[in-house]
Amino acid sequence: xxxxxxxxxxxxxxxxxxxQGEPIPIVRYENEGVNADGSYSWSFETGNGIQAxxxxxxxxxxxxxxxxxxxxxxxxxxxxxxxxSLTYVADENGFQPQxxxxxxxxxxxxxxxxxxxxxxxxPEEDQENEVGRAQRQVSDRAEYNGNQRYYNQRKEFxxxxxxx
Length: 164
Fold this sequence. Notes:
structural constituent of chitin-based larval cuticle, 2 domains, flat, two-stranded antiparallel sheet
């Protein structure tokens, strides 16, 4: 039993060595730690062509809207040989990556695009509809008539109501 455990351990160690391969050298590494004003930057490049860099600072320091702002980029070659380049910004608007390899949303259908353009060109009609909707909501409310009774001025039509 002990022999089997030893053989499994030796086989596992040899597989681990094969998977690790040659260590990849770091060609360049720069790191400017967190400064007194909260800013920092780092960058590196490896022997297999991976490059990365990032800078960060505090925006609106000392105010209620204080927050981090980070910009950076990463470049490498994918397993299929495609060069990948990613740039990003992370701030009060969230993480915003950009790169040709990122998926893009499908195009907006033509009919919807036309409707959006028409709505943008006619904002006054939207405002009129909002006013009309507000007036209808007010008129739909039950009103107090002074006799300690409430009534609704509009009679609702119920299509399921039978008249005998």
